[in-house]
């Protein structure tokens, strides 16, 4: 018997089609189809000036918009040898870690919703709300912030010293609420019955399908670009890469919970150092120059983000490539679905925190009509 779920379903935040071949409620084969939300952003970027593709890169994903525009401008800064002020790098990191907090907490709410715990889902969104307000206070936006620009950050994103105590106070409250949410989640036998030993992803399968981010770290694989490549100034901060070996839905959820506490560590250290840094947040004295495609990696909430492009002799963007973490993580989830109960299918997919919007940004080349 075949069961088709989607592309629109109440358990889905974004459109995709899940095809399940089942026998007595047990999945025998699975196929995930994407492409419903296709936009072809990389193709649109070709031939544009680098400043304009920053605007487009932010629209690739609503939940991780900052990491996209930040990684995008890093390509130009690396290719044109543009020096970024220290304070601007700190602000970029602070906004990214705040974005990681709001993204992970959003996933908690989504998982509770899929499990049927509506009250817990609402509670997760209440816990998340102070982070969105801090982001709005710093950048002017709750979801898309337009913070990084080539050579620094926008003037409105400069964090004033008199705002820091208020931010730290709200982060303290967020941490307290998050600890309560974690305790409530991992001490609830009904939740544990649905997430422990469900959706097991072993290391070999994770490596085979190139799992990344918390999905990989839930299977004990080191993958944090902040640690492996020392992105930006992350090597100045003390924080741990969270690893679990269980490889199930429980582990992938636990990684994200404990990563939130690591993000709080980073933010607090950055805010403590911020008053002692130079006030400059933007370097206007840069000059664009042609360069061949350059690769840049960063660590988004869901895993590794990759940007690559160059500038031609007219200083227009060429050979754009963007890779987001969901595509490979979805391949892992598709591989491990067989053998599970039908009722666990959407939960397993959600456990890798998929973003179909950023996955469907890719170029699709079709043969021309005869």
TrEMBL record:
Signal peptide: none
Ranges for domain NADH-quinone oxidoreductase subunit D: 115-283, 297-361
Single annotated GO MF: quinone binding
Binding site for Mg(2+): 42, 322
Cofactor entry: Ni(2+); Fe cation
Binding site for Ni(2+): 61, 64, 355
InterPro entries: ComplexI_49kDa-like (IPR052197), NADH_Q_OxRdtase_suD (IPR001135), Ni-dep_hyd_lsu (IPR001501), Ni-dep_hyd_lsu_Ni_BS (IPR018194), NiFe-Hase_large (IPR029014)
UniProt binding sites for Fe cation: 64, 358
UniProt keywords, alphabetically: Iron, Magnesium, Metal-binding, Nickel, Oxidoreductase, Ubiquinone
Protein name from the UniProt record: NADH dehydrogenase (Ubiquinone), 30 kDa subunit
Gene source species: Methanocaldococcus villosus KIN24-T80
